[in-house]
């Protein structure tokens, strides 16, 4: 089967979307921002692009997990569970209120691996986003497909201990935050809103916080300390899930000599769940 799915590498798809005023207004409400203008042509925080370009698949074409079924654009990976593994994003220009944007997505790589929890397949998508004035952003996104959850307990992995932070904010993501973000992004993945499904089918103890939600709130915390700045580039890696309604911390280091700084979500046990290296400007 893996030999077949490698034939999907190189496939491309184009989707258009609009940075519409209602979306910007709702993101400002979600993030408690009062400094973002809603006038047509006003710049929007770069990282708010994460709510655009939903799949909007017909209801009849959704899988059990709430995602579009595989085999249309996404390759027919023979593993049932999926999660975001990481992403790398470079912003070239700020999106503006009212801009019509286009995203070209290419299946850049498909890589089977075997980890401590079983077989895995990594699918890397490369997104190029353009607007009225040219290139806006380029993103590489790694999606990890996993085996069905086993009845046996998962192997215990050593937690990644967090470094000392320059700032640290308590954060307990709520079901309302997850719902509002999923509604904005039209994300139907049930692990973010259906607690019974997340627990009984995928084997998680609680709702999973979207990786994009953790990233969003890390960036918002950073930009409160750097007013007037924008995220210019970042690389994110997911080490372990962040669970809904469980205390966590948004943390960051001071910038280094090159202007880079590490951000992370710290779980209640002190382990690092998501790590981001970013640059603002």
TrEMBL record:
One of its GO terms (molecular function) is (3R)-hydroxyacyl-[acyl-carrier-protein] dehydratase activity. It comes from the Bacteria. Residues 74-136 form the FAS1-like dehydratase domain. InterPro entries: FAS1-like_DH_region, HotDog_dom_sf, Mitochondrial_HTD2. PANTHER family: HYDROXYACYL-THIOESTER DEHYDRATASE TYPE 2, MITOCHONDRIAL. This is FAS1-like dehydratase domain-containing protein. It comes from Neoroseomonas lacus.
């Amino acid at each position: 089967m893996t030999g077949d799915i490698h034939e999907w590498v190189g496939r491309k798809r184009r989707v258009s979307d609009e940075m519409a005023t209602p979306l910007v207004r709702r993101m400002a409400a979600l993030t408690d921002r009062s400094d973002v203008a809603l006038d047509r042509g006003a710049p929007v925080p770069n990282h708010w692009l994460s709510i655009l370009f939903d799949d909007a698949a017909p209801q009849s074409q959704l899988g059990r997990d709430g995602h579009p079924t595989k085999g249309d654009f996404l390759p027919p990976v023979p593993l049932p569970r999926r999660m975001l593994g990481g992403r790398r994003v470079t912003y070239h220009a700020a999106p503006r209120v009212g801009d019509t944007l286009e995203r070209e997505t290419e299946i850049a790589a498909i890589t089977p691996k075997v980890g401590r929890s079983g077989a895995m397949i990594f699918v890397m998508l490369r997104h190029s986003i353009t607007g009225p004035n040219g290139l806006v952003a380029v993103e590489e996104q790694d999606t990890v497909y996993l085996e069905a959850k086993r009845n046996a307990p998962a192997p215990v992995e050593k937690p990644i201990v967090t470094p000392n932070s320059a700032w640290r904010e308590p954060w307990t993501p709520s079901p309302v935050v997850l719902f509002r973000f999923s509604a904005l992004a039209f994300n139907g993945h049930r692990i973010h809103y259906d607690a019974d499904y997340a627990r009984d089918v995928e084997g998680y103890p609680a709702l999973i916080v979207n990786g994009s939600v953790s990233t969003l709130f890390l960036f918002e915390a950073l930009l409160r300390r750097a007013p007037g700045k924008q995220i210019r580039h970042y690389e994110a890696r997911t080490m372990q899930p962040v669970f809904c309604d469980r205390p966590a911390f948004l943390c960051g280091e001071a910038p280094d000599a090159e202007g880079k700084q590490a951000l992370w979500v710290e779980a209640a046990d002190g382990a690092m769940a998501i790590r981001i290296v970013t640059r603002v400007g």
